[in-house]
Amino acid sequence: MADSVSSTSSYSYLQTANKRLSGLSSGMDIDSIVEKLMKAESAKMEKLQQQKQKYEWQRDAYREIDLKLETFSKNLFDQFGLQKSLLVRKTSVSDESKVSVTADNTAVGTLNLSSVSQLATSASKLGSQLMTSAINGQHKLSDFGINGSSEGTGSFTIKLNGEDEGKTITYTKDDTIDTLLSKLKDAGLTNAKITNGKLSLGSDSVIVENNPNFFMKLGFSVDGNTLSESNEEATINIKANSATLLKDIKNFSETNGSFTLSVIQSDGSMKDTKINYSSSDTIEDLVKSINTSGAGVTVVFGNGQMSITANATGSVAGGAIQIKEDNENLFNVLGFTTGSSKFVANGTNAIYTINGIQKESTSNSIKESGYSITLKQTFNQANDPNYNGTVTISSSIDTDGMVEKIKSFVNMYNEIIESINTPLKEKKNLNYPPLTDAQKAEMTEEQIKKWEEKAKQGLLRNDTILSTALSGMRNAIYTVSENNPFKGLFNIGVTTTATYTDGGKLQLDEDKLKEAIAKDPEAVVKLFTDSENGVVAKLRTAVDTASKQIDDKAGKTSFADNTYSLGRTISSLDDQIEAWKDRLKAIEERYYNQFTRMEEAINKANMQSSLFMPSY
Fold first, then answer.
1. Average pLDDT of the segment spanning 168-190
2. pTM, 2 dp
């Protein structure tokens, strides 16, 4: 019988497979026998592993509920904990084309907006055109006055190094220098390029058959029909573009520097922002630096000009956009100032008359008596034919809005009750214990997934912490506030359902709630928002208490295992499992040693018996 190759089985605890005789003499499948023996020996350890798995699943189930409780507690306060969240008002505006209005819970009375003589505008300034003598690849031929025919096209023919036949190149006025360079290279001027802001053909013999004026506009001198490569003395003056370096702008000092922008903000204050620049920056680089600086302006560059606009509206003394500490006079170079004066631009303030009082605001969004008003247009001016009188603004309790808010509270409460009741009532499935490692090794991932879904059922059935949480939340719902005319939610139409299996879910009588709101809307709101006896405060206390108990039991992902009870249990089981693995390893080694000695004894007996066999 050939030696069998022993492989590590699901019940092997040895780190490496030792070389054994493995049934050579006895004819027995020793690996299979040892595996069956070890399966029996492993039973106690597998029970520990199954217990550990159950505790881990239970811990994770607790944490899932804990996360829902924390989210519920936060949303409770954000959505229902403050008076402004529940006391919903609706506005009435006599002319919505002129203003838009919203009202918070403090909005009362009527406002009469009799005129808006001026809207707030942003400070803005357009600089003069910037010029440069340095060519770059983004310049268009039209920048040099090359416009071609009436259709904007043209051509020229060049001969290189005494060639008999020339090469004709066509162009349009919108071609860039980069496009032209590509065409020249295709025609044989392979060294054509831009050098130090000048166009270089890279050849000492270029003859232009026609249209030599094309190259003259690009800064070349032309002797008859021959181009001179020496164009260093040629002077061109063209509009700067976004790729133009700051140092190449006319009158730039060719030094690095910085400047400070002082700009109006949305609250009417002024903010100073220092911005550094380098002479080798492009105009595009400078635009990006300013726009991303947080100064509160938007800079745009195009057609050789730069504009700067404040993001916020309004006028302030000294200007809504001011340039400070511009020692190199960069903004003068950029066309915003003259001489040594600093650039200043101002916006305008909104001027309006409300309830007979003229007011002024840096913004078109104003607040008055709990109303948020956005001015859309001017009116009450002599030249305004659309003026049709005063705009009247008022507010009232939005009963339907309040009903919808309280309905959303009921829905949110019922969702958390459902998420607690489901695991609390879920039956255990005793036919599906946690799988052992050996069992998983014989199953597919899908089979394991379906098995474990059943095995996890009922882990928190009749759990004391969850039962206590539900009890505390129900008590909060039935909170009685003696100082409130409605006493409790039950008197405004919010009660628990009559169905026992609902587990304490709420139901809403909308008609009764509307009657309560019509009678005393603020008292309805206080049933929820009162800091001492309000339902929100009581509910949050009950939820936070339950969350603390869950943390003590199951911890959070950031907790160390020894800080919560399930973690300590799982750690203890880990220690026991590791101890069992060491014990099983020794047992497996002992079994193999015993079988090895048996094999050796049989082999020796076989050798001795062969000595007495007759020879033929």
1. 92
2. 0.66
